Amino acid sequence: MLNSAGTDKSLGISGNLSPADYQAIQQFLSQNCGIELGDSKQYLVKSRLQPLLAKFELPGFADLAAALQSNAFSAQKLKSAVIDAMTTNETFWFRDERQFSELRDHVLPQVLAQRNGSIRIWSAACSSGQEPYSISICGLDALRASGKNRALQIIGTDISEAILEEAKRACYSDAALSRGIDEATKAKYFQKSYDGYQLNEEVTRQVRFQQFNLLKSFAALGRFDVIFCRNVLIYFSDAIKRDILTRMADSLEPGGYLFLSSTEAMPPGIGAYEMVRSGLTNYFRKPG
Hints:
The chain is globular. The chain is α/β, with parallel strands linked by helices. It contains 11 helices and 12 strands. The strands form 3 sheets. The protein has a 7-stranded mixed β-sheet. Strands 5-7-6 form a 3-stranded antiparallel β-sheet. It has helices at residues 19-33, 42-55, 61-68, 76-87, 97-114, 130-146, 161-169, 174-177, 183-189, 201-204, 238-251; strands spanning 7-8, 13-14, 119-124, 152-158, 171-172, 190-193, 196-199, 207-211, 224-229, 252-259, 274-277, 282-285. It folds into 2 domains: 7-87, Orthogonal Bundle (Chemotaxis Receptor Methyltransferase Cher, domain 1); 97-285, Vaccinia Virus protein VP39 (Rossmann fold, 3-Layer(aba) Sandwich). Helix 6 (130-146) links the parallel strand 3 and strand 4.
């Protein structure tokens, strides 16, 4: 219970966030995961980080800000928890369904026709797994339609280790499935379990998850035929957006495809892609 001064009486925790402490948290997030909060997101910081004060037995935000600036090993769990809390974003199945229709009906058939070997797809900032698993379902449909026996390798990455643990479990509630999964798809790919609906191995075996920071080098991830990078670039500065998209072009095979969200535009000055305009949606292709 908070009193008028913003203090939890039962725990002795202060909920006050000073300008200096907010600036320290801003700087930590910018340097460690590229998030640019701006100067008016104090409410977001307080709502997402307040629970960590009790969890880590910190008297207030001043102590949290000080710990974020520390190099002590004991501060690493707190730093990871702050990143997890500030980067957990909304997601749902087949988000922007037109893009998944384009992937299934046009992009994957073209990739299958043009290349031999495994098809590799990267779902960046994949959150709790709905996007890479949606990609996997589309991939299964495309492979069946093609009559080809090809391996599909999907890598889902996110900076949050906690959210990736949810993704790996591949078990979803009724509420989560209601956001994008119709009854036919539920019956085909999910099995009822004691705590929700478990996704079939046919879908999950094509997907692996890896904790990854988009500010780091992409080299170890390898090359991809398709990259999904949706609803994450909005949190970065223009300079970081351009850097990420330029490096993603280097990670694409010649003729590979990039999907941004339908509300995101390619920043000016990036010549590594050409826009593909279809009757359903727009996306990008690396020439080659």
